[in-house]
Amino acid sequence: MLEGLSNSDDLIDLKLRIEELPPDLKTLFDNLLNRLDKTYFERACQAFRLLRAWREAAAWIATFGYRPIFPESPTLLQFYFADNRDVKLDLNDSLLILSQDEINEKVDLMRRRLVTRCRGFLTLTADTADNGTSGKQVSYLHRTARDFIESDDYWPLVVKGTQEADFNPE
Predict the structure, then answer these.
(1) Cβ of 79: how many Cβ atoms within 10 Å?
(2) Of 66, 104, 119, 164, which is least surrounded by CB within 10 A?
(3) CB atoms within 10 A of CB 47
(4) Is the separation of the CB atoms in 121 and 107 below 8 Å?
(5) How many Å apart are CA 88 and CA 77, to the nearest integer?
(6) Which residues of 115-134 are buried (b: 16+ CB within 10 A; e: fewer)?
């Protein structure tokens, strides 16, 4: 529906889109993933694995009582740095200080990448920190989307989809 609205579809076209929707979520999610550009499949799998690794780290840290400083989902800017293959930071590097324009550029790039790569499975939550776009958090569109991607049936395909790359979500 969002794709139709962004394409300025009229009401008849939007109704046709609704009528073409599969009757159950599994078929809908399968169709969405099958429509994913093959070029982006590996990158989508990496995004899914990054989000799961973050959530697992957040849950572990929460056991020590630090939930407020380590939220359950990464911000768009944090996700940019985790996802970016061109950025290799070393603990000995000096602190990276970005201007607001640089931050805006990076978060906009990551937002567009998530839309293109993940076919709506990942979305941005409301900005809780009121920092503009950089404070928005990356999460699954809905718990059912996460449950589908991380299911015993589908998760092995996600892991396999990232095996060719030099990739470690942790």
Answers:
(1) 26
(2) 164
(3) 26
(4) no
(5) 15
(6) bebbbebbbbeeeeeeeebb
- State the DSSP string of 14-29: HHHHHHTS-SSHHHHH
Beta strands in 36-77 (DSSP E): none
* 3 state SS of 82: helix
pLDDT, one tens digit per residue, over 12-60 is 998 988 888 788 888 878 887 777 887 888 999 999 999 999 989 888 8
Please say whether the beta carbons of 43 and 113 come within 8 A.
Answer: yes
In the chain, what are the domain boundaries? 1-35, 38-160
pLDDT tens for each residue of 124-145: 886 555 455 557 889 998 899 9
Maximum alpha-carbon separation in the chain: 59
DSSP 121-135: SEEE---SS-BTBTT
Closest to 46 (Cα-Cα) out of 126, 163, 125: 163
Cβ atoms of 133 and 107 within 8 Å: the answer is: yes
CB-based contact 151:135 (threshold 8 Å): no
Residue 75 DSSP one-character state: B
| Cβ 137 vs Cβ 75: under 8 Å | yes
Residue 36: what pLDDT?
80
